[in-house]
Amino acid sequence: QVQLVESGGGLVQAGGSLRLSCAASGIFFSDSAMGWYRQSPGEQRDLVATITGGGSTNYADSVKGRFTISRDNAKNTLYLQMNSLKPEDTAVYYCNADAPRGSFYYKYWGRGTQVTVSS
Description:
mainly beta; four-stranded antiparallel β-sheet
């Protein structure tokens, strides 16, 4: 059974920092592309950052220079370090995995963790 469990969300003042974690199980983590997405009420779910199994990263323009995605393949854990947080970063943050199974890749989602940035 695949599980992606996010943690580390919370309430922080503008300019502060948070570190999100996503513990993965049931997938070949080191072979999976991983990512963070976020969704605000009434909005679509948007990409925040992605990282391949080899460590190549990609960021949304809105978080470049402030957020850092990383992974620990030995711990099957994905991270998102968020610095210089802004009120517009407020959203539910979701962990995503594009994980191989046989000849195909499947997309999995965690349940999300709330991040609230106060002004």
